[in-house]
Amino acid sequence: MKLGLINSAWLGTSVTTAEGIRKTKEIGFDTIDISADPLDIDIKERRLIKDTCREAGLPVISICCCALGIADFSPAVQRFHVSRCKAHLDFVYELEAKNLLLVLGEYIWQQEVIPPKAQWQFAVDNVRRLGDYAAGLGVEVAIELEPFKLSIVNTLDKMDQFLKDVDHSAVRANLDISHLALANTPPESVPNLRGRIAHVHFSDCDGKVHGDLPPGRGVVNFTPYLQQLKNLGFDGTISIELEYSPQPEKIVEWVTEAYRETNRLMQSLGIRD
Questions:
Q1: N or C: which terminal CB in the chain sees fewer CB atoms within 10 Å?
Q2: pLDDT at 160 exceeding the cut of 90
Q3: 58-87: per-residue pLDDT in tens?
């Protein structure tokens, strides 16, 4: 397995886009994921990202996208989010990455007024469309499990069902280990997604709320999850997700600590390429 970093770790700090990419390589990461909206950045920024990653020798694995309106009740809103996701998939192709990390939205109005089954189906239909588009580019869509009460895909069982309902070879799962812990999903359940795991996120939490902490600062027991991934023969990338550091001025130390602890865990199981 490779060890990567999502570049959103540097957001909100004094570290620029190019500096963040170079620093990611210097710290020791194998790969990088990019959190940038192609509708918000210009062609110069896109070229900067591509050229700097190439110069640093950091392959881009994933582009992150939150499409919280993809299951909205309004067809116009759905169409916008599908179009926006396609722009992200074009960005995946442009950066020669492997997948679009897709965060779906939540049920609106506490699952009242609009039937939850309808919103589920909106998400299924639209993600299937994105699967078709991704397949045409030779890339994938990786659905992230979000452990929040009203998230459309918030448990491993729902991930399993969602992927079955979408039924597309270009649509697979992202597993965020801290999200699994927050959703009270035991490591023994991970094999239920055998052959359908495209990508893994890695961060710690306090066991109660979403945290994005460096491993070791929270309570997540990572080893059993990593062992399950090893048993499944997962050979993809584990990407560290750190956002909104409480001490932005110490972000380099924060990222370095996360790298050190994750690398230690991976080495102890013999899974770091």
A1: C
A2: yes
A3: 999 999 999 999 999 999 999 999 999 999
Q: Is residue 184 exposed (0-12), middle (13-18) or buried (19+ Cβ within 10 Å)? A: exposed
Residue 65 CA to residue 62 CA, distance in Å, equals: 10
pTM: 0.95
All domains of the chain, ordered by start, with CATH?
2-268 (3.20.20.150)
CB distance 3 to 238 below 8 Å: yes
Cβ-count burial 244-256 (b if 16+ within 10 Å, e if not):
ebeeeeebbebbb
Cα separation, 64 vs 55, in Å, equals: 22
Between helix 75-94 and helix 116-137 the angle, nearest 10°, is 30
**Around Cβ 135, how many Cβ atoms within 10 Å?**
15
- 3-class SS of residue 143: strand
Report how far apart, in Å, the C-alpha atoms of 67 and of each of 13, 20, 154, 166, 219 are.
Answer: 25, 25, 15, 17, 29
How many Å separate Cα 1 from the centre of its chain?
16
> How long is the chain?
273
Is the distance from CB of 93 to CB of 46 less than 8 angstroms? no
